[in-house]
Specification:
The chain has 17 helices and 13 strands. With about 425 residues, the protein is of the alpha+beta class. The protein folds into 2 domains: about 1-170 and about 400-430, 2-Layer Sandwich (Alpha-Beta Plaits), CATH 3.30.70; about 250-395, Dna Ligase, domain 1, CATH 3.30.1490.100. β10 (about 285-295) and β11 (about 300-310) form a beta hairpin. The longest helix is centred in the middle third of the chain and has 21 residues, at about 260-280. It is globular. The termini are far apart.
Length: about 425
């Protein structure tokens, strides 16, 4: 395999134990201690490396995690602050290149190709400077991978965590790939890995040594693309455009304590529905298919799908079908811990044609009502205005689910519970 050092230079940056690390930055007394976030849910949402050393894993109940790690510190999730740190991290990455793809809240891809002359340094040096800037300015540990494609860059960033910097030029590609098992490839799930193992493929190098036709026959288009990506030919471009279209939109909510109350569950479904529809309208979409989900205490999902007679955007168009079908999949006496809705079969709402049986006046009124509600919620906070049938969500709040984050408890002058300045606040506890 003869490849230039960096025919294309793609970087992947990944914050290490992001949520827990942010908590340790904002609360300096937590540094070096085993902590988890998710106290408000009673389960482990994220955890520090110190907690991982004791065998604590995501998804565990807090009580179960404490048995493994008696000194475990549990804090409520502070997504507002996590989002602010994420934004600042991406701003630092954009100092080096404008071509940045925000892949998730704590990771991004960046295309550095052609920027050596601008920065007067090599691609590995550029990656090192970016990593040091993030760690110095934010106090967060990040792992960085640099290589010839997005798949290789992501593989490289995972190779040496935490706080790793792995640069894989073309001439060292085979040496790197033989050290990575096939299950580490971004895009291969458990079933795909099991199939590859049956074909005698253990490492990533084993995979790319097979003919291209082998990968395409086994996995189709995705197999072909991954074979090229892992062989050093970039297929997936770094997409710096903000996402403006969706195949589906989902909203899910876990509550604590779990409940058997049908009114409370129905209210939660409506809240999820309102949030999903609000997001859908923001992108000028309409839905024709709705999926409702109730998750039991033992993590078993009851699911019901509703197909509408026409595309809809208004809350009032979907409340009726949700109410009429709720009893079909709610099981009396069963304990539920979460609910969710998924809006599918989405279409541009500006391209929808009415049939002769529609009531255009009613539709326009419903759309105007939603527009007014969206405007009020933007001004006064999410779901400041909501359906009356969702009131039990507010009335029945209790248990650990209602534990506020430190940022919500310590408001700055002029802030309210719904409206705050976009500033992370350092929470320092002074010794007695």
């Amino acid at each position: 395999m003869l490849l230039g050092s960096y025919p294309q230079a793609i970087l992947h940056i990944d914050a290490d134990a992001f949520f827990a690390s942010v908590e340790q930055v904002v609360h300096p007394e937590l540094k070096g201690k085993p902590i988890i976030t998710g106290a408000e849910r009673g389960m482990v949402i994220a955890l520090s490396y110190e907690a991982k050393a004791f065998g604590v894993k995501r998804g565990m109940r807090v009580g179960e995690a404490r048995k493994l790690c008696p000194g475990l510190i549990s804090v409520p999730s502070d997504y507002e602050t996590y989002g602010l740190f994420s934004k600042r991290m991406f701003e630092i990455v954009r100092r080096f290149t404008p071509q940045v793809e925000e892949y998730s809240i704590d990771e991004a891809f960046a295309d550095l190709s052609g920027l050596r002359r601008l920065h007067h340094c090599s691609y590995p040096e550029m990656a090192r400077q970016m990593k040091e800037a993030v760690e110095k300015e934010l106090g967060l540990s990040v792992s960085v991978g640099l290589s010839l494609s997005k798949s290789l860059a992501k593989l490289a960033s995972k190779f040496c965590k935490p706080s790793g910097l792995t640069c894989v030029p073309g001439r060292e590609l085979e040496i790197f790939l033989v050290q990575n098992s096939i299950d580490k490839v971004w895009g291969f799930g458990k079933n795909s890995v099991a199939l590859l193992h049956k074909q005698g493929i253990q490492t990533v190098l084993d995979f790319i040594k097979r003919p291209h036709g082998f990968a395409k026959k086994l996995f189709g288009k995705i197999g072909s693309e991954l074979w090229h990506e892992l062989s050093g030919t970039s297929v997936y471009a770094v997409d710096s455009m903000e996402k403006t279209s969706y195949q589906s939109i989902s909203k899910f909510k876990t509550f604590s304590p779990s409940t058997t109350d049908p009114d409370y569950l129905f209210a939660h479904l409506l809240r999820n529905l309102e949030r999903a529809l609000s997001k859908m309208r923001r992108f000028h979409l309409a839905t024709r298919r709705l999926v409702m989900i109730l998750r039991s205490h033992d993590f078993v999902d009851d699911v019901l799908e509703i197909t509408l007679s026409r595309y809809a955007t208004a809350v009032l168009d979907l409340v009726g079908p949700v109410r009429d079908n709720f009893d079909q999949f709610f099981k009396e006496g069963k304990t539920y811990r979460a609910s969710g809705v998924v809006l599918c079969d989405l279409k541009d709402d500006r391209k929808i044609q009415l049939n002769i049986f529609e009531d255009p006046v009613r539709m326009v009124k419903a759309q105007r009502l939603d527009s007014a509600v969206d405007a009020l919620n933007r001004q006064f906070g999410r779901q400041a205005v909501h359906l009356a049938d969702s009131l039990p969500v507010d009335k029945n709040r209790g248990g650990v689910r209602n534990i506020p984050s430190a940022r919500r408890q310590n408001l700055l002058k002029g802030e309210s519970k719904r409206r705050r300045l976009g500033l992370p606040v350092l929470q320092i506890k002074l010794g007695s």
